[in-house]
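User: Second chain of the day. Same drill as before.
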Amino acid sequence: MTLSKVPGGALLLALLLFPLPQALADSGPPSPARDAAAGSLAEERLIVSMQQERAALEARRKSLDQKELALKSLQAEVDKKLDELKALSASMQKLLQQRDEAENKRVEDLSKIYEKMDPSRGAKILGDLDEGLAIRILSRMRSKAAGAILANMDQKKAAALSAAFSRIGPH
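Assistant: Same format as last time:
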């Protein structure tokens, strides 16, 4: 004879497979009314449904825990990449600043060279340079030397450099 043919057998099988919480197990000796109610088909279905629901909730909890771990791992990876990018950005800024300082030093040195040069020769060379560089050089020269170079330069070129020079701010 199988347990399912015994009155309340399905409940007994369910209790064997899925023990009751301690509080329900200690509720005292079984009564005939309780045995009859336990054997009902509706109660068996309810117990099976609750067990299925519990299993589904446990599986969902495990899945969510795994997803949470994966998200934490991804967040740590993103944070690490962000820190690397910030470090690279700071390094780039430092390199750009060093480049600008070196370029400004070269322009400063060039302006001193042009100041000491014969104005007619300086005018010819400066006139052939890129306008932006020529203006930067002129802006760092003493006014008297810059004026002498502009006076020896082609009139149109001198006018263009003077106009552009007037638009720049202090160096």
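The radius of gyration is 45 Å.

User: Great, on to the next one.
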